[in-house]
Structure formats: C-alpha cells, structure tokens
Amino acid sequence: MKNIVLLGGGAREHALAWKLTQDGATVHVLPGNAGIPNSHPEIDVLDFAAIQGFCEEHGAKLLVVGPEAPLAAGVTDFFAGSDIRVFGPGRAGATLESSKVWSKNFMRRHGVATAMSWQFRSDKLEEARAKAAELNGQVVVKFDGLAAGKGVYVCSSVEEAQAALDDLAAQHSGWFSFLLEEKLSGPEISIIGVTDGNRIRLLSPSQDHKQLLAHDQGPNTGGMGAYCPVPFCDDNILAAIRTEIVDPTLEGIQAEQFEFRGFLYFGIMLTPQGPKLLEYNARLGDPEAEVLLPALQSSLLELIEATLDGTLARCTVRQRPGHYVGVVLASGGYPAAGFPTGFPITGLDQLHPSILAFHGATRRNETGELLTNGGRVLVLVGHGAELEDAVAHVYREAEKVNFQYVYLRPDIGQRPEPTRIFSELR
Ligand code: AMP
Ligand code: GLY
User: Could you tell me if the CB of 206 is within 6 A of ligand 2?
Assistant: First the structure.
C-alpha cells in the first residue's frame, strides 16, 4: 500500500486524509489532530528535517502539503532532488499567495482580470491617504504578506480608509508594502484546480462563508462553512473565468518557469464587468476542501501522481452528483482572541452515517474524552440531491453535536441567488 505523509492539522487535512485513504493510501498526518487517524502531534510542519526523518522511517515517497506556511517556507525546495516527491508548489509558486504585491504584478504582467490597484511602501502613507480620498474611500487596503486573513481592510468611506491605513501602520513596524485596490462588488466564488503548471483540472466551483454572522455580517473568520457546486456558476461564467483568469495564469507560470505542482486556488469576484481575480492561494481552501473532496468521484491520489509524473493531460475529473454543504461548529467567542476551549464534545456517535464529521481543532484528555481545542472545532458535511436537501440534512444533524458555547452560522448554502449581475455578464 502507498504510504503518504500529509502536512497540516485542520479540517482540510482531515478531509484530505479521508479522501486519500479512500483512494487506497496509508496516510500519516503531521501534526494532525485528535480526530484524524495516524496523527503525529510531535512533528511541526516547519521542521523539515524531522519531516524528512519521518518519511524515511515510514517509507513514504510522497508528501502532500495542506497549509500555506510550509509552502512559503520552502518545503518543496527542501525536498527537491531527494526521492521524496512533494505535492505543493515551491517557494516561488507559493509567492502567488504569500505576497499580494508580487501576485498583483504577476496578474498584470500576464493579463489576468483583476481590480485596479496602486502599490505603496510604508514611507508613502500620505500618498496612499490622498489616493484613498480621491477614490472616495471605496478601496480595499491589503498588507503585503501572509497575515492569516487579517491583512485586508474593505472600506466604504474616506474615514474608514484612513482608519485602515492607521491600523496598518500601527500593526506593522519597520518597512512594509501594501496595496490600495479599487473596491469591487459581486458574489465571490472559489475555483480550485490541480495543476502541474502546464495543465489544470478544476474541481467543482464552491463558495466559502467568511464572515461570522448570518447574511455575511460580523468579523471575518477562517471560514464558517462552504458548499458546492454553486448553482449560478454556469458554463458561460466558467468559460469567462477560464479565458480571463485561469488560462493567462497558467501561461504566466510557464513563461516565468516556476515549478507549480499542487492545488491552485482562484478567489474570484463576479462583477458586472466580468470575473475578477481577488487572490491566489497555493493550496486547497479551508472549508472548501471539506465539501470539494467528498464531491470528487475521481481518485485524488491518481490526480496527484499524474501531476507529479507530468501526465495530467490523461486525467479527467469526475464529480459525484448532488450537492455538498459543510457547516463549521465553532467555539463561542471565536474569532476574537481568548475564547475558552477544553469543553467535552458530545453527540458525534449519534450522527447519521451519511454525515461526514471532519475535525478542525480537537484533542483528547488523559481519559480519552474528546475536547474542543481551538476556534473552528468541527466541520459537518451533508449531501443531498438538491442544495436545499443537503442544507436541511446537515443542519438537522448538527443539532445532535454539542459542546459548551457552540456556535454555527445558520445560513450556509442559503445566500439569495444573484440575478442582476449575471444578466449583465451574459
Ligand atoms: P483577499 O485575501 O485578497 O482575498 O481578500 C479577502 C476578502 O476581502 C475577499 O474575500 C473579499 O471579500 C474582500 N476583497 C478583496 N479584494 C477586494 C476588492 N478589490 N473589492 C472588494 N472586496 C475585496
Ligand atoms: N477559504 C478561504 C481560504 O482557505 O483561504
């Protein structure tokens, strides 16, 4: 049996481990968590020497990377030339995610449809203030670097834009860069593919729900739920996304000759002027992975191996019929700092067998009791012939799972269908 080492320890990695196990692999997860079989909490995702030792000890020749941090730190470059193959881009490819300025310039060089933007250094804050005022405060301020989702300020007035720039200056000392972007509007979708830098095989379109509260209110989180496919994302829209965003990106990767074998994520806004790319991620989305992988009928292991062998051209991606909805069960207080954890989790054994329960942040105490251990504790995934069926099923089942101060967003997969935007697009 094929031995795989998977890096990461959230619900995305639980979904990856679950899928790769279904595909026939033995999956060891570093560090994993209490809900993921074969987890090894003693190994850190940034300790490349320890990861190498673990792979050698377990005869694993394939390393799959879940989160961005080890990619940005160069895990793929570290193993280059060894007999351990890594699914995940090298440091240069990961820069598409880790530097907003670099990725914006890449989009420009290769004609990828995106928002207009202006780049500034921290010593040019006054110029940025003037530009934001000129744009009536309808701007998005983006810090240039990995900021765990906290480096983006979406502003609606000059006052908000000035406050965002003040906050940026307060948060970061020394020299830094940032972008001002024109503020776009429209629904957002996640388009995620498996690519070898030459070809790409897209998974189903999906939608994340990043804000904490119903109707997209409240603070941004790591993601409170996701669903796929997205009914309004039809063939016309997908064709526009292909020609205006995906194809020029692949041409750019080839022209600049950097290694990119892994998941490539396009965060897209569907504006009245057509699809625009907001960001790249060099990995699977979380919580998108938790619905995309159950929806994927094809073997992920085969797709990964074909990517590394350069035979992706021979692969097709088959999706299972129906709809998948994933709802995050979060700790009350998240995403603010300092919320309590360590509460017993009950009811998982009562779930209907068709519900998948991916663990995001759980641990066990000395007696083996399962406890909460972070913000996004569990992701429950339900399936249905129609989106409404999947929604009803997962929410009914979610009532069975409990821990103190549990919070879930009540409207995952229930956004009103956008109409105006798409009639203009067509
Ligand atoms: P990013 O990390 O660049 O994807 O930005 C995080 C979130 O900010 C996105 O998911 C959008 O909701 C919002 N956002 C980013 N860029 C823009 C933009 N140009 N116009 C409007 N909203 C944006
Ligand atoms: N769901 C958004 C992300 O993974 O960045």
Answer: no
Mutate to test the pocket of ligand 2, among 265, 292, 328, 379 (most ligand atoms within 8 A of CB): 265
pLDDT digits (tens, 9 = 90+) for 89-129: 999 999 999 999 999 999 999 999 999 999 999 999 999 99
d(CA 424, CA 83): 51
Nearest bound ligand to CA 379? 2
3-79 carries CATH number 3.40.50.20: yes
User: What's the topology of domain 188-321+417-425?
Assistant: D-amino Acid Aminotransferase; Chain A, domain 1 (3.30.470)
Cα gap 190→169, rounded to integer Å: 30
Beta bridge partners of 378: 329, 359
The letter for the amino acid at 135 is: L
DSSP 97-159: HH-HHHHHHHHHHTT--B--EEEEEGGGHHHHHHHHHHTTT-EEEEESS--TT-SEEE-SSHH
- Domain 323-407 - what CATH class? alpha beta
Residue 422 pLDDT exceeds 60:
no
Task: Indicate the pTM of the whole model.
Answer: 0.96
Domain extents in the chain: 3-79, 116-182, 188-321+417-425, 323-407
- What does CATH list as the number for 116-182? 3.30.1490.20
